[in-house]
Amino acid sequence: MSRVPMLIGNWKMNKTLQEARDFAQRLGQQSMHLKPGCEYAICAPYTSLHLLRVMLPAQVQLGAQNVYHEVSGAYTGEISAPMLVDFGTKFVLAGHSERRAIFGESNEMIARKVSTIMKAGMTPILCVGETIAEREAGQTEHVVKEQVLSGLANLESGEVETLVIAYEPVWAIGTGKTASVDDAGQVIGWIRQILVDQFSSSVANHVRILYGGSVKADNIASFVGHPEIDGGLVGGASLEADSFVGMAKAIEGGQR
Ligand SMILES: O=C[C@H](O)COP(=O)(O)O
């Protein structure tokens, strides 16, 4: 089956309101380049969500970078899924390697977030990927399998087929080093096989699996051109509207 490719920006902890406004204005001026054959979203800091909801071109959906698994209560500093739904948020990242490494999120916590996001009617983007030490020790397949299976542990098959997975080798994030298209395609192929074994071929064929790690306008088409890779989760290159549009054009111009 053919899956609609995705271009998802992750701003991480970047942009004041003025900077977010400048981005949205510039993107709006070029929105004719955001063609319907691809799905677009920006995962912004909470502080920019309202502004982006108002200002982003209609083709670009709203995403958040994190959520807490409880709905309300005494959890100082946290944001719940219903609060994100209020802003019109469609996607929420779960298990980004920066959350795992810097904030100590375990596979179990990530699984709770994934089901919370799904139950609230939003789409989780479950991020998985090995460190350089794990890759060099030949553990990539094992690590990714554990992250995928534990991340999805609280979902039914019908829920799994609507979610998005992002394979982001930790050593390729923000470093300028990308995985080769073949290596990324191989790991994403393993992930799809895990979904076949655990759920069914039909579920596995629906799930979009993205590559992330130093993706930009001049390399995204080669990733999306690989039959297993359904788009990009992009950090640095999503911060400028021109570069976001450059990636959209590259996907549109690529062979898929
Ligand atoms: O979520 C995005 C990834 O961490 C990739 O970031 P990057 O494109 O800056 O390498």
TrEMBL record:
Enzymatic class: isomerase
Protein name per UniProt: Triosephosphate isomerase
Locations listed in the record: Cytoplasm
Active site: 96, 168
Main location: cytoplasm
Pathway noted in the entry: Carbohydrate degradation; glycolysis; D-glyceraldehyde 3-phosphate from glycerone phosphate: step 1/1; Carbohydrate biosynthesis; gluconeogenesis
Family: Belongs to the triosephosphate isomerase family.
